[in-house]
Amino acid sequence: MIVRLRAFGELEPLLDGERLHLSLPEDATLSDLLDAIDERWGGQLEPVWWDRAARRFRGPVVILAGGTDVHDPATLLNDGQAILLVPVVSGG
Predict the structure, then answer these.
(1) Residue 88: closest CA among 15, 10, 13
(2) Which of 1, 47, 55, 83 has the fewest C-beta atoms under 10 angstroms from its C-beta?
(3) Between the CA of residue 69 and those of 11, 60, 64, 87, what are the distances in Å?
(4) What is the pLDDT of residues 18-73, one digit of tens each?
(5) Strands (E), the chain
(6) DSSP assigned state of 29
(7) What phi, psi does 39 have (nearest 5°)?
């Protein structure tokens, strides 16, 4: 299956700055996607964004699929699904 990955804000240049198509196994889950992100970009993502040991984003990143925040690693993904990685911005 293919998922479309799009990073925003400060994550955009760290993940090659473009919309990506990632190939994942059939019946892939969010956990499979996070494993693929770790394999491709884990070594270059700063610790403020990525927890390499846990293979997941740290607090300031929201993962959106179909307009819904997903955080359960067992969440099933769909072929052709768009996944958005959005850093949380705070301040005033």
Answers:
(1) 10
(2) 47
(3) 17, 13, 5, 12
(4) 678 999 999 999 999 999 999 999 998 889 899 999 999 987 899 999 889 998 99
(5) 2-7, 20-23, 50-51, 56-57, 61-65, 68-69, 82-87
(6) B
(7) -65, -40
**Helices marked H in the chain:** 11-14, 30-41
Contact 49, 60 (CB under 8 A): yes
pTM of the model: 0.89
* Paired tokens of 46: 């700063």
CA nearest to 86, candidates 4, 9, 17: 9
Which tokens sit at 83?
């996944």
Distances 73 to 18, 28, 30, 46, 76 between C-alpha atoms, Å? 24, 10, 5, 21, 8
